[in-house]
Amino acid sequence: MIPVVTPAEMAEIDASSPESVDVLTGRAGAAVARAALEELGGGYGRRVVVVAGPGSNGADGRVAVERLEQRGVRTVVVDALDLPPKLPQADLVVDAAFGTGLARPWEAPETSSPVLAVDLPSGLDGLTGVATGNPLCATRTVTFAALKPGLLLGDGPGLAGRVEVVDIGLDASSAGAFLIEDSDVANLVPSRQPDAHKWQSACWVVAGSPGMEGAANLTATAAQRAGAGYVRLSIPGGTDTDSPVEVVGYPVGAGLAEVSGDLDRFASLVVGPGLGTDGDTWSGVRHLVANSTVPVIVDGDGLNALVSEDPVSERMTSVMLTPHDGEYKRLTGHLPGPNRLDAARRLACSLDAVVLLKGSTTVVAAPDGRVRLVTAGDSRLATAGTGDVLAGILGAFVARGAEPLDATAVAAHVHGKLAAACPGTGVVAGDLATHLVEVLVGLGVDPAREM
């Protein structure tokens, strides 16, 4: 996992460093110079324009100028406080104008040259990713010690280009947020043991309603393929004949009373995808969330069922919620807003639950304030039913024994990787599970055992 710190947290990390400002600036400037040379494909005779501000970013840029000139690069330094309307022609522009401290819109000068940003593109809010003014669009950003939320949220990914985190000797171990990487999946999802049996990782899916049986099947199929040893599927007040033959159907009434009586045999419960709006079913959902003896994943219509009452009073076990922005608004009365880390944390704390706030960058927050971010995935997941697949994967990972925050974060990451395994267009939710096994194998989950 890669640490992610807010601008305020980064300022504290800077202030607590035993290294002098000059030493840190020297390291940062050298890193910028190395990145510039890589972008240039060499040094001698190349031309670089450095837009340098009055603060630490500008200092980093000026150190980079010294290093570049030593390699034969012709440099021009432009004062960020006295900008021309158009920058001189160059092979590369280094945006070292302003970092996280800029509190006003920034109107960048015109340029047709590729841009290397220092720490983050000037004019981009380091906390929210909201761009103000007219920032330069970078092809690459060099940031220090840790990622900043603004590089991952909002306008950040489109403005920052390829982001490189450089170690300059600052201690970012205090970070409360981290970006999930591929290598984290196998580390956080327990492997099956040689003596495993199906009930150790059994998952009960309560989902679907008349006309919405497909949601139930998508969830159950994903739970199977993600490693649940036994999947039971219950469609309240109905039956389904299209589920996989390995899924065990179990009839329950609209009020879900039958679920509570046999739940202790299971390692996780997924409730909500396609449940519809039946009042008795919603009451049953609230009862399960408040009284379940096993971890509960609440998705889709299950989230809507929680709106009318406090779902977590005297709760007995872990709960994971998976809202998109509209569901977040129904749960809280307002949209998340641009500070999505804070929004997810506040909901997680208020409901004492792990919250997966869906978005182009997904934010997963625990009640204690820990955050995981997921950037895997793209617009191919913006189609009906893909959230049901995510709920099934999460149910399986929890059933396998992953800690709720870890399970939720890596499930979102795997879900995003499924999109990359699909064609560029025409993807439907049912396509995702067909790639689930190959994606998990590629990520090192359940490695083959030597005999």
In short:
With 451 residues, the protein is an alpha/beta fold. The protein is 36% helix and 17% strand.
List the SSEs and their pairings:
Elements: E1 2-4, H1 7-15, H2 21-40, E2 47-52, H3 56-70, E3 74-79, E4 92-96, E5 106-107, E6 115-118, E7 133-134, E8 140-144, H4 149-152, H5 156-160, E9 162-166, E10 177-179, H6 182-188, E11 202-206, H7 213-225, E12 230-234, E13 248-249, H8 257-261, E14 268-271, H9 279-291, E15 296-298, H10 301-305, E16 319-321, H11 325-332, H12 340-351, E17 354-357, E18 362-365, E19 371-374, H13 386-399, H14 404-420, H15 429-442
Parallel strand pairs: 2-3, 2-4, 4-6, 5-7, 6-8, 8-9, 10-19, 11-12, 11-14, 12-13, 14-15, 15-16, 16-17
Antiparallel strand pairs: 1-10, 17-18, 18-19
Helix pairs in contact: 2-3, 6-14, 7-13, 7-15, 13-14, 13-15, 14-15
